[in-house]
Amino acid sequence: MFISYRCPFVVFLRSALIQLVEEYMEKGLGVVAISPNSVVVFPEDGPAEMQEEVEKYGYKFPYLYDETQEVTQAYAPLGTPDFFVFRKNEEQKFELAYHGQFDDARDHNPNKIPITGRDLRLALDAVLTGKPVDPHQKHSMGCAIQWHPHLIPKLYPKPKLEKDDTNLLWHA
What we know:
- GO terms for molecular function: antioxidant activity; oxidoreductase activity.
- The protein is an alpha+beta fold.
- 30% of the residues lie in helices and 11% in strands.
- The chain has helices at residues 8-26, 47-57, 70-75, 118-128, 152-155, and strands at residues 33-35, 63-65, 83-88, 94-100.
- It starts with 7 loop residues before the first helix and ends in a 17-residue tail after the last helix.
């Protein structure tokens, strides 16, 4: 999973996330959290502050810092939080089984949907019992990844428009 301890979306579900992770770790699930944000952009997202978070909330899973952002680029999370669940296939190689949200709860939701971890829980249960994971997975909603400034042109190149293509920008 990709999380940022400062992201309001992560803060909103932190307690439920920790509880869910501990529950599934007891069932043998391996869990790793990765902080993807650049300390060039946000110095407060560095390893020292992450360690304070681990100690304050008692994380029982590794919370890693992606200093080069190579891992983050490889997984391409949509933001924080974002969840990835892998299972071993017939060749005993890991394959992606789930990439999506924790659940439908949002701190700004007027319906006040409770935090349950439903979507992630269903995926984890399916993987642990050898059943297929529902292919209809909802994207996570959260905070944008803060990229190293030198990576932005590589990750988000400006489109090259032909002279005749400029009219397309203004037509519906």
